[in-house]
Amino acid sequence: MRRLVLLVLAIALIFLVPSEGIGASIRVVTTIPDLADMAKHIGGDLVEVKSLATGVEDIHAVPMKPSFVPLLNRADVVMVMGLDAEHAFLPALLEVARNPKIQPNGPGYIDCSIYIAPLEVPTRIDRALGDQHPAGNPHFNLDPVRGKDMARAIADSLARNYPDKAPTFQKNLAAYLATLDAAIARWEREAVPLRGMKLVSYHPDMIYFAERFGMEAVGTIEIRAGIDPTPGHIVALEDMMRRQGVKLVVRELHYPAGLAATVAQHTGATLVELPAMVGGVPEAKDYLSFINYNVQAMLKAAATINAARN
Ligand SMILES: [Zn+2]
After folding, report:
1. Whole-angstrom distance, CA of residue 163 vs CA of residue 270
2. What is the pLDDT of residue 309?
3. Upper half-sphere CA count for residue 55 (Cβ side, 13 Å)
4. Looking at 170-290, which runs of residues are DSSP E strands?
């Protein structure tokens, strides 16, 4: 199957037509829409940005489309989350795209995790077991303060590639960070009711969000990243939730609905359904509205839980 996909992708490259005159735009391809939104803010009218994922996918399993190959072949830079988040699809695509600039050691390969100190870095790496987080937890885009680090990585890497445009990137970065800072201050004020709340999520992708807003991610429906649950795991998880009084179950929208709903029902918890990246719901049209959607959805769930307690 994988060989067939790669063959189709290779054929797509044969029919590649030369790019049309789009002037001096820097062609940016990002893996996820969060990075595309930030690249547009920082690059302004100097960049033309396309994202491979639309936001409804699992970042660990974005389906490879033939249209990705010409995009990557013509790209000046590629922006990735890093920490091996994209290892299921990106290395194969980069190989077929035959663009030396954006290979992992090339100047145009922009790793947006460079300023992040990752959490949950494993002491033993064994991808044979199917672990999707071999380099630590890559879901830092759910924390807007770490979002600022992503934006900085984008601006600095663009400046390194296009030194003559560096002042523009740094000016746009400063404006974007000011907007983010104002929103972060508002979210931190609003999120006071979330403090101390424990949650269980389907996949281990809520830890950075939880840490930012004083919540505690205490378990997952998956056994660990990418490892499907067993009945025994679910029994143990529900026992733990009852013992610890966990009243919140998060289902990230790209994971199956039934099991998360059942776990919530068995434990008397409230189910909250969240996007894991920009574009995961229509309201999450850019990075600010994505974080805002998640904060408001959590607050709504917290209000339901508190109303049931009183
Ligand atoms: Zn993950």
Report:
1. 50
2. 81
3. 22
4. 198-201, 216-220, 248-252, 270-274
